[in-house]
Amino acid sequence: MAENKVHPTTIVSNIKACIPITLDYEGKQYNSWSTLFQLHCRANMVINHIQPLTVNPSVAVPAPTEAEKALTQRIDDIVRQWIYGTISNDLLNSILDPDDSALKTLADNLRNVGDKVSDNRMALQLLKGLSDEK
Tens digit of pLDDT for each residue in 40-81? Predict the structure, then answer.
């Protein structure tokens, strides 16, 4: 009979209790945040999800099973949630949608509080902000 083991990552319910530092754009506490994050990942046996393992090309590695692929993806998602839970909202918004422009971010924030900004209005504002220099 196969033994069902619970991976340590799946039982972390409050990442802020383990990593009380919030990383922000200024990054003044990056070293402390990074040290705590790596410590937490090693303790939960997922350090290889943020620091790739060194691979010996002369050693054959069997292809992962579908169950192993699914578990790896789940653990990746949990580690990503840990990162998202320990960074500032501004940094989180930049990471989640790095293609956003400042104008789009402002429009999204206005829409979130009930003030919809039309695409035409955004285009006009963008054009108005362009310099006359060619």
Answer: 999 999 998 888 778 788 888 889 999 999 999 999 999 999
- Cβ atoms within 10 Å of 101's Cβ, excluding its own: 10
Per-residue model confidence (pLDDT) at position 7: 86
Could you give the CA distance from residue 134 to residue 84 in angstroms, rounded to a whole number?
A: 41
Interval 100-109 mean pLDDT: 64
For residue 90, the SS3 value is: helix
Q: CB pairs under 8 A, 24+ apart, for 80-84?
A: 81/15, 82/12, 82/15, 82/19, 82/37, 82/40, 83/37
Q: Where are the domains of the chain?
A: 1-53+65-98, 99-134
21: nearest Cα among 33, 35, 13, 34: 33
* Contact present, 90 and 100 (Cβ < 8 Å): no
